Amino acid sequence: MLAFTNLSWRFLTVWRRNLVVYRKIWKVNFLVPLLEPAFYILAFGLGFQGLIEGLSYAGQPMAYTRFMAPALIAISIMYNSFFETTYASFVRMYYQKTFDGMMATPLSLEEIILAEIVWSATKATAAALIMAVVLGLFGFVAFPQGLLLLPLAFLGGLAFGSVGMFFTGFTPSIDMFNLPIFLFITPMFLFSGTFFPTAGLPVWAQHAAYAFPLYHLVELTRFCCLGLSETNPWASLAYLFCFALIFLVVGLMAMRRRLIK
Question: What SS3 class is residue 117?
Fold first, then answer.
């Protein structure tokens, strides 16, 4: 049973511990969000721009790279937070025994897991900031409206960090993370309106896309970057908030069931 009374601001000590460790390797980790959008824009801009004509989003014609660029930020938020609470958290829990050492202190299990999820959202926000600056240099992010990407990235990071922790709660070995990546992450990556508008999909596929949290995150990033959205931004924000809240609770329960026997 999940004990919310075990939660306190002490979780920030675990967050701070992860930050101290991360500061030793941040230069290498920041290369990905720094260079990835430039590679995507160059590759798709040079390769697809001349092949794709008449693209329309929210009733507005636009270049393909302009349509795709905001989705890169959403994808980065998803990957950074999800992989942090799956592979990285699993290593700290199973191989490094970091969780065991923390549980020998006054910290509760709930505080440790909450800190892991919040840390994943922090990494996602940092990556989103870097990508927004890079894409802004290409003219794909309008400031100051683009600054809304930061709280959005944190919320998206909480959502995908929480669902990643949920999978960590019952995945028996680190190799088995291939299953949720293949069955959950990859379909979202391809069919959430990231690289083509969902309006071109069959009706059943459009409804399936609406159920993906990444779809709503992509819509919100486009709204922050372009001021356009095919859905109600408030509805997408509410969906993402509810998804994050539900899986935060479910993720905490799954980890308690795994670690407290």
Answer: helix
Closest CA to 205 of 227, 186, 190, 183: 190
pLDDT-derived band at 167, boundaries 50, 70, 90: very high
- Token readout for 46 is 């040079």
Model confidence, pTM: 0.92
Peptide bond into 144 cis (omega under 30): yes
Q: Which residues pair with 56 in a beta bridge?
A: 61
**DSSP result, 31-54:** HHHHHHHHHHHHHHHHHTTTT--S
Candidates 215, 209, 252; CA nearest to 237 is 215
Looking at the chain, list the stretches that DSSP marks H as alpha helix, in order from N- to C-terminal side. 11-22, 26-29, 31-47, 64-83, 89-90, 98-103, 109-137, 149-168, 178-180, 186-191, 203-210, 213-226, 233-259
Rounded distance between C-alpha atoms, residue 77 and residue 4, angstroms = 27
| Cα→Cα distances 38→35, 127, 140, Å | 5, 14, 11
pLDDT score of 174:
93
- Whether residue 215 is predicted with pLDDT greater than 70 in this model: the reply is yes
Q: Can you give the C-alpha Rg of the chain in angstroms? A: 19
State phi, psi for 148 to the nearest 5 degrees: -65, -15
Task: Provide the residue count of the chain.
Answer: 261
The one-letter amino acid code at 38 reads: A
